[in-house]
Design brief:
The complex is a heterodimer of chains A (about 325) and B (about 220). Chain A is of the alpha+beta class and about 325 residues long. Helices cover about 65% and strands about 5% of the residues of chain A. Classes of the chains: A alpha+beta (about 325), B alpha/beta (about 220). Chain B: It is found in: Cell inner membrane; Cell membrane.
């Protein structure tokens, strides 16, 4: 120090400082009621966004499971016609299917089984022997070699024109896919909206903090801090708040999914278990879901830091 | 070092606080800025500090005309100045040590690189035992000394002090004045705004007297 009375050239021994001396406290005051409120808002928004992302992930993975199960199987429908021997037609269709390399196994539904499939619509105890009930053959598809369903359809049309048809559930799969994609799209949209809301909340909070810390900013300017340094100080403070809020929100969301998984497991053993399992699968969001939840927590923190920095720069300009 | 030419200053649509003020602060000079309360002393210091811009006239600081100065250049100029505010402007959430170290910290220096000089200066201004205390717990005199230490720590080329001895007893006031004089001998230009004639009589030097917005220089 130039004004110091001690000779400038004398070696300065490392002075003993009080061990409790705080030396590098944040330049922007951190522990205020407004900071806690902002962290709570970020936690709530992160929680909602993470729930949304997790729900979208459950739907997407359940739809994948359903689609996978359905795609493993196709059905040949053989319609009875006047003057035709349906058993012979079935045997012919079965033989055509078995000749296709990608078909792992076939199962012919007997007449009784085919009639039983109609029971949910027509009721039981009816004599359906006079009705032309179509017969079904289910084909299990092999993974390798991949079945050529187009060729099979052509072969069936040539062997049994107008009698046998192949249903590969494409329409149903397409609808399921559209539904799942829509749900995931809505989920992504809601997550984006929640993150935008987080950004706006942070922008307002930063403006409030700048107004509340006007004197701090002024003093920092006078002692030689540039705008970027001040913006970084605010960014550090808000990134810390965002990290805290994001971690709490994401943690709560993970806990909620874990709790829902446990509840679903308990319900599955109950009377409505089959329906719940059919609808939600195992209620398990998988590693992709957990990663999405954690990512949302991180993104919320980053959004908080970046928005606060931009807001401060604009405020100072 | 600082040059004002026909500078006029008014706040908003109010009357001119300063009118046709012209003066020059030479390197290594020492001057008092005096005048009755409300004469415009603080406004003049704020103009030198570049926290307000003149309504008319030319202001040059460290040889740079400041009307169209960039924010980077402004920061560079402020780092060459030290300022002691009348109301101290210590940051209440930082310890005395952190407040005094602030000008070095905002330059991006590591805490270990300036610890020794901050502690030495704190001890010299009599705050060696109070360095861990937050400003609200300091007395008026201690706050004053902390504010002075903060202004001096970065070895400024120009020191501006607004009533720096207003809250201290006469003995400490004299000691602080000696500190400013010693700083001046080491090459820093000093401007002390005060209306304490007792203090000014202790060190006969150039006086810049403001009255009714006009400046008169007594060499």
């Amino acid at each position: 120090m130039a004004a110091s009375p001690s000779p400038a050239a004398a070696p300065v021994p490392e002075p003993a400082l009080p061990p409790t001396l705080r030396r590098n406290a944040p330049l922007v005051p951190t522990d205020s009621a407004a900071s806690r409120s902002l962290a709570a808002v970020i936690a709530i928004l992160t929680f909602l966004a993470a729930l949304c992302a997790g729900a979208a992930e459950i739907v997407a993975s359940s739809a994948d499971q359903w689609r996978g199960a359905v795609a493993q199987e196709v059905t040949i429908q053989v319609r009875p016609g006047p003057g035709r021997d349906i058993e012979a037609d079935i045997a012919r269709a079965d033989a055509v299917a078995k000749a296709e390399p990608g078909i792992r196994a076939t199962r012919v539904f007997s007449k009784a089984e085919a009639e039983r499939l109609l029971e949910p619509w027509l009721g039981s105890g009816l004599d359906l022997s006079d009705l032309p009930v179509p017969r079904l053959i289910t084909l299990k598809l092999a993974d390798s070699p991949a079945p050529d369903l187009k060729r099979l359809r052509t072969a069936l049309a040539e062997a049994l024109p107008g009698v046998a048809s192949l249903d590969d559930h494409a329409l149903w799969q397409q609808r399921l896919s559209t539904m799942a994609t829509t749900f995931v799209g809505v989920g992504v949209g809601i997550v984006a909206l929640v993150l935008i809301a987080t950004g706006l909340a942070v922008a307002f909070a930063t403006r409030g903090a700048m107004a509340g810390n006007r004197e701090v900013v002024e003093v920092l300017h006078f002692v030689g801090a540039d705008d970027d340094y001040i913006a970084r100080a605010f960014q550090r403070r808000f990134f810390g708040l965002g990290l805290r809020g994001g971690a709490i929100g994401a943690g709560l969301a993970l806990a909620a999914f874990a709790f829902a998984g446990l509840m679903a497991r308990a319900w599955r053993s109950g009377p409505a278990g089959d329906e719940i399992e059919a609808l939600f699968g195992a209620f398990h969001i998988g590693w992709r879901g957990y990663a999405a939840v954690l990512l949302i927590g991180v993104i919320a923190s980053v959004v908080t830091g970046v928005v606060s920095r931009l807001t401060v720069r604009r405020f100072l300009a | 070092m600082v040059q004002f030419e026909n500078v006029g200053m008014r706040y908003g649509l109010g009357p001119e606080v300063l009118s046709d003020v012209s003066f020059r602060i030479a390197p290594r000079s020492f001057q008092f800025l005096t005048g009755p309360s409300g004469a415009g002393k603080t406004t003049l210091l704020r103009l030198i500090l570049l926290s307000v811009r003149p309504t008319r006239g030319l202001v040059s600081v460290f040889g740079e005309e400041v009307s169209g100065i960039s924010s980077e250049a402004l920061t560079g100029l402020r780092r060459r100045m030290g300022v002691v505010f009348q109301d101290f402007r210590l940051l209440d959430h930082l310890t005395t040590y952190e407040n005094v170290a602030l000008p070095l910290r905002v330059q991006g220096r590591a805490e270990t690189s300036y610890r020794a000089e901050v502690v030495e200066l704190l001890r010299w201004v009599g705050l060696g035992e109070r360095m861990h205390v937050l400003p609200p717990l300091l007395s008026g005199g201690e706050k004053q000394r902390a504010a002075i230490a903060r202004a001096l720590i970065a070895r400024p080329e120009l020191l501006l002090a607004d009533e720096p001895t207003g809250n201290v007893d006469p003995g400490l006031g004299r000691r602080l004045l000696r500190l400013f004089v010693e700083l001046n001998k080491l090459g820093t230009s000093v401007i002390i705004a005060t209306h304490d004639f007792g203090l000014m009589d202790l060190f006969p030097t150039r006086r810049m007297v403001l009255g009714h917005g006009r400046l008169q220089i007594e060499e």
